[in-house]
Design brief:
Chain lengths: 234, 290
Amino acid sequence: MLKISSLKSGYDGMEILRGVDIYVDPGEIVALIGTNGAGKSTLLKSIFNLADIYDGQIIFKDKDITNLPTHDLIREGISFAPQGRLVFSDMTVFENLEMGAFIFTDKELVKRNIKDIFEKFPTLKAKQKHNASTLSGGQQQLLSIARALVQNPELLLLDEPSLGLSPIAMKEVFSKIVEINHRSVSVLIVEQNVKQAVSIANRTYILENGRVALEGNKDILKNPETSQIYFGLK
Amino acid sequence: MISSYFGGLLIMISIYLILALSLQLALGFCGLFNLGFVGFYAIGAYASALLALSGQPFWFCLLTAALVPTIFAYILSTATNKLKGDYLALATMGFSFVIYAVTLNWIGLTKGPLGLPGIPRPQFWGIDFNNDTNFLILSALIAILTYLILHKIASSPFGKTLEAIRDDELAAKSLGKKTATAKSLALMISAFFAGIAGCLLASYLSYIDPTSFMFVNLIPILTIVVIGGLASLPGTVFATIIIVLLPEPLRFIGLPSSLIGPGRQLLYALFLLLILLYKPKGFYGKVELE
């Protein structure tokens, strides 16, 4: 579904990713973990054309999408929920979802999509007329994910969905991610909460200094190389 | 008939309303802290004044007064598109100073500090706009039209995109919004209406000079936007009336004329301070000024 080859990217001439190769198959949850500054968020931003790409190729459903404008990427079937629960705080929950659905010109389709989202996220339905700023951290994160889902993606990019959440809220967010995946949406997730991310992922990549250092399945945390990457242990 | 004094006040309310509404679009809705706004006002005023003095019809002057600042806004937005917050404020403030310096020093075109006197009032459809009541009707109609157009823009999907950019530009980008284009358009529309206000001011006063377009002239317009409330058009109308009328009692308490100007600025500053302290969202605003 998604294949990234030899990707070099960064910001304003500064190279963060130094040749990354990863892939995501249909129906998979793939986790990207690694220490701070490893380039995890930059990888998601590069896919979504929010970082500068210097070299390499990004293929989605057999089409080269390298440097494709963001609105075209959404039309191709990729959506992105950025780090930090970036909801539009002065808009209502409903308006936030409408903002996500702007790519559809058919108003009936927008209504249908939002209705569908409310069925999947009953908490948001109950608060649809409330300003997003009045939601709890967990609810804001769910709104951020729901706003991306309203675009009907085939691949969802999630950047640290557990950031700043309480353990209960985090559990809810992760179970929602699994539920989304069961509805045939592939997920590429960047996460600091390594244990949680690995537990829901089919495969995991560990990034180190802008390169893939290790690839594995649910046992990746038992691999001695993982400790070496995270803690410098030999 | 309305007395000349009250007619003049109502005309100034119309002109300030157009200015404040147009600043509201860029600042209140899109979050662009554009301190170069007075520069657009100046360009509109000078463009229309020069054309009117060369005998061009009013509608042509008005259109040019709107379009020339729009072009400048496009250039300014292209140059400052990656700037945000304080950096954008500083860069656009520089633009305001440059325009002021041009009006002051390009003597051949603007007559510098002497200003441009004898700017004719409009005359069309057999109506003489030298009559203040007629000019008031014209300026009020343009102000109402400005309100309706900006209201339409603000409640459109484009308006919602501007609000999304104000709330969080990265989030808006991540939803596929063309944020750079939207910000540029917001600045251009804002400049378009500021230019129209400049044209009305030049026609009404029949005289303009650089002092009307100094940076400090942004204070009352900014005060209106903050007091009315960011992203609130009805609030802007309410605040315009208050801010234009607020310093008027100063005229009647026997203050020397040299003190009226500073007294007016003092009142604006005091009012702004009180609002920011006790009502940070203004009277009808949805968001706080950050």
